[in-house]
Structures are given as structure tokens and as C-alpha cells.
Amino acid sequence: MKKKILLFLISFFILFQFKSSANDKIVFIDMDLLIKKSIAGIKIKKDLEELQSKKNKYFEKLSKQLRKQEDDLIAKKNLMEQNEFNKQVTELKKKIVEFQDERKKFSEEIQNKKIKYLSNFVEEIHPILIEYSEANTLSLIVDKKNVVLGNNNLDITNDILVIIDKKIKSVKLD
């Protein structure tokens, strides 16, 4: 008899726990899509591409100058003393190394700016997600890339995209 009562109580608590879990509302959102399609996300991408384009033009110009210096040096090789030629070759190599370092440094700067922009964007989205979650009594919002299988009715990406486009027009880089 005690075993039956104990079994009944355990079953009751387990069923009660499953019932409360079934009432939890879990949805998912595609953060990558928000970044790609929102007004602020598009502006971030455009700003980074413009910066990279300007710097690439500068690097292309500098690269042509270095190639011209190299060609001029090769053309003058037979007209110069060996010591003078070696000295100019060393100087040119130094300029090339500096050029490569500057290009690498710029690439790292662009990557860091992209990370910072996206981090600031996510920070600005966070309060919107909290507000949406509270208004719709959501228990959990999961990024779509972490969902194996889910009903499309649980995808709130488009709803959030509309709200983000109304509230966030651009993202500042601190």
C-alpha cells in the first residue's frame, strides 16, 4: 500500500513537471539574417566595405610604386656599382616588408571593427528581444543555427526584423 502511494506521488510530480514544461514557449530567431537584412546591419556592411575599398585603392597604388621601383632598379643593375645596387635592393626589400606589415595590420583592424560593430549591434538588439519576450510570454529564444528541427511557426525572425528596423537605424562604433 505504501509503495502504491509513493508510486502515485512520484507519478503525480513527474506529470506535473511535464505539464509545466509543456506550457513553456520556446521560439527561435535567425541572428545572421537579422544582421544581413536589417537596415543597421546593411549599413554596417556598407561602411566596412567602403573603408576596405578606400584602403585597397591605397594599397594597390603603393604596390604599383614598389613594382616600378623594382623594375627601375633591375634596369639600372648593370649601370650601378654592386655595393650601391645591394644597398638599394635592401632598402626596397625593407619597403616591401613594411607594405606587407601595413596590409596585414589593416586586415586585422577591419576584422576587429567588424567584430565590434556586430557586438554593438547585438547589444542593441538584446533589449528588443527582452521586450518581445515579455510581451509574448516567451520562455526561451534560441538562435536558429542551434536548432536541429523546428516548426516554422516558432521562427520570430521577421517580427523582430520589423521592430529592429523601426528602432535601430545605425550602430555606433565606440
What is the strand arrangement across the widest sheet?
1-2
Ends apart, CA distance between termini: 69 Å
Overall shape: it is rod-shaped
Q: What is the gyration radius calculated from CA atoms?
A: 30 Å
Arithmetic mean pLDDT: 80
Helix count, DSSP H or I runs of 4 or more residues: 5
Structural class: mainly alpha
How many individual β-strands? 2
Strand content: under 5%
Question: Low-confidence stretches at least 5 residues in length (pLDDT < 50)?
Answer: 18-22
Q: Oligomeric form of this entry? A: single chain
Main sheet summary:
2 strands, parallel
* Topology order in helix (H) and strand (E) letters: HEHHHEH
**Share of helix, binned:** over 70%
Q: What is the domain tally? A: 1
Summary of the model, kept short:
The protein is mainly α. The chain contains 5 helices and 2 strands; from the N terminus they run αβαααβα.
Can you describe this structure?
There is one protein chain. With 174 residues, this protein is mainly alpha-helical. The protein has one domain. It is built from 5 helices and 2 strands; from the N terminus they run H-E-H-H-H-E-H. It has helices at residues 2-22, 31-37, 39-75, 82-135, 157-167, and strands spanning 26-29, 140-143. The chain has a two-stranded parallel sheet with strand order 1-2. Helix 2 crosses helix 3. The relative contact order is 0.18.
